């Protein structure tokens, strides 16, 4: 990931955590042991590495964000869409692979990191996909499609729209179920 980000020449914010095999007594990752030698110095003018955590939805809403590399968890996918940010999909587990299909193949608001299935994504692939999303005509098309999806999501949340109606129906069903359970208990 580090070499691909560096070689892309693009600006980035990267949240780095300890991988499972590097767990230690310290909660903070040792960037010196995880990143290539000199990486932080070579990228300091255009990259920012954060240890452990950043406020993801707040970061995604910032106007300078042009792409979002993610593992395709559902909450992250929704945050990416709601923020209008194209996604670089790198699924790892279970439903993340299905979410990748939705983002890349159906909605066409993201691209996939080739090699993820073999658990070996090369630096060249990271570089290629970062450049594609952030500095190409195809990336601009992704941005336009994700903005359409964002507007659809915003519309669905309005009073009387599909999400509002579905939530009201859920609450009604929940109340009916609760009332039915209480009647059986008495």
UniProtKB/TrEMBL annotation:
Keywords: Transferase. InterPro entries: UDP-glycosyltransf_plant, UDP_glucos_trans. This is UDP-glycosyltransferases domain-containing protein. The lineage of its organism: Eukaryota, Viridiplantae, Streptophyta, Embryophyta, Tracheophyta. Signal peptide: none annotated. Belongs to the UDP-glycosyltransferase family. CDD domains: GT1_Gtf-like (cd03784). One of its GO terms (molecular function) is UDP-glucosyltransferase activity. It comes from Setaria viridis (Green bristlegrass).
